[in-house]
Amino acid sequence: MASLSIIVGIIGNIISILVFASPIETFWQVVRQKSTGNYNGIPYITTLLSTSLWTFYGVIKPKGFLIFTVNGAGAIFQFIYIILFLAYAPKDKKVQTGMMVATLNFGFVGSVIAISLLAIPESVRLTVVGILCAVLTIGMYASPLSAMRTVITTNSVKSMPFLLSFFLFLNAGIWSVYSLLIKDFFIGVPNSIGFVLGSAQLILYAIYKNKSISAKSTEEMEDRSTRGLVKGMIEMRGLEDDEEAGLKNRSGLHKGRSLPKPSVNGQNSFQRILKTLSLTPYEIHSNNWQYNHENDIEIGAKKITSDY
Q1: Which residues form the signal peptide (predicted)?
Q2: Which residue stretches of the chain are H helix?
Q3: 57-82 pLDDT tens trace
């Protein structure tokens, strides 16, 4: 039984480290762009808080070496992420994040360790720290509930990446098994809750994945129809302009006048519609272009109509 728990614990270490390493790509982009953009530092602060306390729990727990190693590695990952965030964040975010780090990751964690070692009897010390760690872990596993609600309301799985949900599911499952083998209630309860929530995420993903694909296909068909309609309007307008210009040219030549100048409104509407046709599919679906795209088509169509 002891050897089985060690094997399961090692597997749990590997999976947890993969989860901790998942933001590396995000921070690689932050370093390349030298900006944190719209990213928030709170998830890394709370994860550092959780892993730091679990590391302490692994230190004071007999035979808690595997708990210490995985959470110690996680704390190192989160600390590096926070340093990078502070290095490239705007001044206001930098100050806010720095204050939270000082309060939670140094002040709170330091207070818990000091009080546990100096004021709490050794007989109940592990219980107090274990309860605190379990509560924080339950909060961490409950955080994807907002993403699950978004999936249901939008019929889209964009807000819930599959790989992250899958690895969190595996992580909670393997540590639930480990807790049964070593009979640790504080590890078992939060990870069992995480396993249930992870299963729910995967079920939601399976249900709404096809709906997301169908919605995307519908949007693409609507975009193609809209672009085809605008293109047809431009071609019709071009033919009519050519006919009108030919008549005016013949009339102008007979009367000895110069060639007519094109309408400014016609030029502007034509340029606006051409601008929409030059967009790539990515730009058409982006939030920044969507409002301007619709306005350009509406304004161009109105101006073409008014030119008659």
Answers
A1: none
A2: 2-21, 24-33, 42-60, 65-88, 91-100, 109-118, 122-142, 145-154, 162-182, 185-255, 264-277, 281-285, 287-307
A3: 999 999 899 999 999 999 999 999 99
